[in-house]
Specification:
Layout (H helix, E strand, L loop, with lengths): L1 E6 L19 E2 L2 E2 H11 L4 E6 L3 H8 L8 E6 L5 H7 L9 E5 L2 E3 L3 H11 L3 E7 L7 E5 L5 E6 L10 E9 L15 H12 L3 E5 L4 E3 L5 H10 L10 E4 L2 E3 L4 E2 L4 E3 L2 E3 L4 E2 L4 E3 L2 E3 L4 E2 L4 E3 L2 E2 L4 E2 L4 E3 L2 E2 L4 E2 L4 E3 L3 E2 L4 E2 L4 E2 L4 E2 L4 E2 L7
Parallel strand pairs: 1-4, 1-6, 4-5, 8-12, 15-18, 16-19, 17-20, 18-21, 19-22, 20-23, 21-24, 22-25, 23-26, 24-27, 25-28, 26-29, 27-30, 28-31, 29-32, 30-33, 31-34
Antiparallel strand pairs: 2-3, 6-11, 7-13, 8-11, 9-10, 14-15
Helix pairs in contact: 3-5
Bound molecules: guanosine-5'-diphosphate-alpha-D-mannose (GDD) and magnesium ion.
The site of magnesium ion has 4 residues, from loops.
């Protein structure tokens, strides 16, 4: 079966991590998100995937090629201009030939797609929407169903007073392509505010498939560290790369860990990374490839992308570092701070409380302290 993945959108809420890296390429446990997603789709019987992108098509092509390395056929199709979620699929309608999966490209889930397809067929549905419970539906699309699962109301980004259920659109659809006759060609048109409300009026059968599978929209701020932690502690099925050298400690090739360093899992350490004398690496933590972690460094509950140099005595706790940063000796980065790419932080700085540094920021020694 074929699938369309929606990967437009600028990922603004995840800046500065998305300044240089498109949201679907952001690494989770050291793997570009889209790669792990494609592998999951392949393992659930999908053979051909169309990525509907809005910009940076070449970045996707360079990373994924024609998909053969992943055992899939991948097409990357760029929209002439933003077409919206339904318009993006309309734009690739000529490549579809029957029941099709459509995915929001920013959702990490281990939803059972085959069970959803069986449900879709059993109900004779035209559009089936996966549903997940959340605490606060105001950020999402609220979906009300009858007891047999038929959708009777769809309300995108509901106001607090309109909330009648905690079930929301989880961003995975199974669609019969004939419904695209309702979608105007070459225009901006959304599933959420356009097609779904229209289908409620036309009476085409539209069903909700509720599931308690793991589910997170990785595009929401704050979620990024949590998602990595969930993968490492095993809350979501996710194939972690590398081999295990201790309980929940995975390393890739060429990692060099000083014998006096202390490692407390769960940890993922990328290829070619070195960890210095008396360093303490406490999980859940991800360290990207090619990082150099100095002596007496402490890293706790953090995510580092590739090629970071962390000088002696630095402290990284509950923070994210993009790629190619230099963190000075005895500098601390803590409490949800996010450092973009190519930042150079001098010695003995203190960055905390959710501070975000844009790519290329430079700080001299003692520039920020308390
Ligand atoms: N190709 C393309 N073109 N993709 C798009 C476009 C577009 O014009 N607009 C959005 N997308 C992609 C985004 O990249 C993302 O993968 C997906 O469509 C959903 O867009 P978001 O901007 O992330 O929407 P949201 O998270 O606020 O809400 C959507 O997802 C929720 C679940 O995470 C809605 O579908 C909600 O109903 C849903 O609950
Ligand atoms: Mg989203």
């Amino acid at each position: 079966m074929k699938a369309v993945i929606l990967v437009g959108g600028l990922g603004t809420r995840l800046r500065p991590l998305t300044c240089n890296t498109p949201k679907p390429m952001i690494p989770l446990a050291n793997q570009p998100f889209i790669e792990s997603m494609l592998a999951r789709l392949r393992d659930q019987g999908i053979t051909e995937v169309i990525l509907a992108v809005q910009y940076l098509a070449d970045r996707f092509r360079a990373a994924l090629g024609d998909g053969s390395q992943l055992g899939l056929k991948v097409h990357v199709i760029e929209e002439p201009e933003a077409r919206g979620t339904a318009g993006a699929v309309k734009n690739v309608e000529h490549l579809l030939d029957g029941t099709t999966y459509v995915f929001n490209g920013d959702v990490l889930t281990d939803l059972d797609l085959r069970a959803m397809l069986a449900f879709h067929r059993e109900k004779g549905s035209r559009v089936t929407i996966s549903l997940t419970p959340v605490d606060d539906p105001t950020q999402f699309g609220l979906v009300e169903t009858n007891s047999d699962g038929r959708i009777r109301r769809f309300l995108e980004k509901p106001r607090a007073e309109d909330i009648t259920t905690n079930l929301i659109n989880a961003g995975t659809y199974i669609i019969e392509p004939e419904v695209f006759r309702y979608v105007p060609p070459a225009q901006f048109y959304m599933f959420e505010r356009g097609l779904f409300p229209v289908l409620l009026q036309t009476g085409d059968p539209m069903f909700g498939f509720p599931s308690r599978a793991y589910w997170t929209d990785i595009g929401k701020p704050q979620a990024y560290l949590e998602v990595n932690h969930d993968i490492l502690i095993g809350r979501v099925q996710f194939p972690i790369r590398g081999h295990q050298i201790a309980e929940r400690v995975w390393v890739e090739e060429g990692v060099d860990i000083h014998s006096s360093a202390q490692l407390v899992g769960p940890l993922v350490i990328g290829a070619g990374t070195t960890i210095g004398r008396n360093a303490r690496i406490i999980g859940p933590t991800v360290i990207g490839a090619g990082c150099q972690i100095g002596a007496d460094v402490t890293i706790e509950r953090s995510v580092l992308w590739e090629n970071n140099q962390v000088a002696d005595g630095a402290l990284l706790r509950f923070c994210v570092l993009g790629k190619d940063n230099q963190i000075g000796a005895k500098t601390s980065v803590t409490d949800g701070a996010i450092i973009g790419d190519q930042c150079v932080l001098g010695a003995e700085n203190r960055l905390e409380r959710g501070i975000r540094l844009w790519p290329g920021t430079e700080l001299s020694d003692h520039a920020i302290s308390f």
